[in-house]
Amino acid sequence: MLPIYDLKCFAPAKSVDDEAFGLPTGGELGGGVYFPTAGYVTDPQLSAHNLQRAAEANGGAFRFNSEVTSILVKSGRIQGVTLRDGSQFSTPIVVNVAGPHSSKINKLVSADKDMRITTRALRQEVAHIPAPQGFDFENRGLVVSDNDIGVYCRPETGNHILAGSEDPECDPHDWVDADDFSRDFTEQWTTQALRLGQRIPELAIPSRMRGVVDLYDVTEDWLPIYDRSAVDGFYMACGTSGNQFKNAPVAGRLMSALIDYCESGNNHDQVPLQFTLGNVDHVLDTSTMSRLREINPESSFSVLG
User: Fold this and answer.
1) Paired sense of beta strands 94-96 and 234-238, if any
2) Do 187 and 144 have their domain in common?
3) Do 74 and 112 reside in the same domain of the chain?
4) Most CB atoms closer than 10 Å: which of 30, 76, 97, 169?
């Protein structure tokens, strides 16, 4: 338990212009679920760089600042890709891991023609707020998912608290073009800071807004797509934003197994790959991440970025 926390209930989450915003609704939080070995990354750029170096050490290569302008297909089969500078790469396999640009990449090859689940770019803001004076949140704080106030938080460098939205129903979704969106803070920043202030009464909200504005790659049920496509040789690992970075190692193994399975002549759409997890005793039915699935009504329809 964090001593700076006030456990009063405020649910459901409200917008700041609601007259009842900030007023307790009765009772206190009855408990929570604690994961002692859970963690987080405060420098995703460094973490991604480390993954790059690890891939290069195993034979991988990268082309940065290189825009894919077309994907070559012949007789329903991937042949390669063309870049903006005219470079062409012949390959029988292309995997779409383009994040918020994934829907644009899918359209290049008409991979979206049979998809029941699709992806869109969703603009998100996270606030960086100084921790209450005298409390070392950077070392004593936790990653906290708090759907009572509609905010998640975690420690951030410099004894700050990162506060992000759990996308409650009262908040509108800001769907954008991944190549044309504003990185300026809006009232959403203030909303998230004030919501966190309900839980941490001593939180001082600064006049200068700090944090991050960027994009999620989101499906209709907020669950990822790890699947083949209607085009032979074109695969998708997308719709992953906000919650799949930590799953990257197993996602990579899953995609490798999926590609081997499909390229060996198996009909993944009819007989989905059953993927055995390496560290827990469980076989994953990959149809749950299919482009052809129905929307999962049990989804939380949110993530913790």
Assistant:
1) parallel
2) yes
3) yes
4) 97
